[in-house]
Specification:
Elements (H helix, E strand, L loop, with lengths): L1 H39 L5 H49 L6 H25 L10 H41 L15
């Protein structure tokens, strides 16, 4: 049908945009590596050069691995939210007099938070961390600054995901209070 074709076209366009962004990112990464090698020529100590190069690769790997992990978590929460929405629709049919406004508001809030966090994760995945190589004396300090920057950026996203999870748990507890007959019952952890 036409709607399926439009959906497929949108999906293909999205994949093409993602591939273009990935290509641009890879080019930026190559430029960064070349610049790093040029900057490392300022350093006479081969051991320090090796450590900086290893740290650079490690930062890239950590950022990629953790942003992929964040994306998987967000997709998992989104999938579960979809299931909860379907369950609420079923409960609405079974209990037409029941009010689901509070749960729906929480779901909308969670979806907005997920959308915003996905944007943060995408931006984080495209970030490139570069050590400023000014002199051998400041090298250790500059490496620490870059490492701390990555750590702080990832923690901001991690906190956002924790907030989403808290809203998700709140949705689940609200849904647990609803029985099929429309009466409310408090669900305790021991039940």
């Amino acid at each position: 049908t036409k709607s399926n074709l439009r959906t497929m076209d949108k999906r293909e366009e999205g994949m093409e945009r993602k591939e273009d962004r990935r290509e641009k990112f890879e080019n930026k990464l190559k430029d960064k590596r070349e610049n790093l090698k040029k900057d490392l020529e300022k350093i006479s100590d081969e051991y320090k050069k090796k450590i900086v190069e290893q740290n650079d690769k490690r930062l890239e790997n950590i950022n990629q691995r953790i942003t992929d992990q964040f994306n998987r978590k967000l997709e998992k929460i989104s999938t579960h939210l979809g299931k909860i929405k379907a369950r609420i629709e079923k409960l609405k049919i079974e209990n037409p007099d029941r009010d689901f406004v509070a749960i729906n508001q929480k779901i909308v809030k969670a979806e907005e938070m997920i959308s915003n966090t996905k944007k943060l994760v995408e931006a984080q995945a495209n970030k490139i961390y570069t050590v400023k190589i000014e002199s051998e004396g400041k090298l250790k300090q500059n490496v620490r600054i870059v490492n701390k920057g990555l750590h702080n950026d990832l923690n901001k996203i991690r906190e956002s995901i924790k907030e989403i999870h808290a809203v998700f748990v709140s949705i689940l507890s609200s849904l647990g209070e609803v029985k099929k007959d429309g009466k409310e019952s408090v669900v305790t952890p021991t039940q």
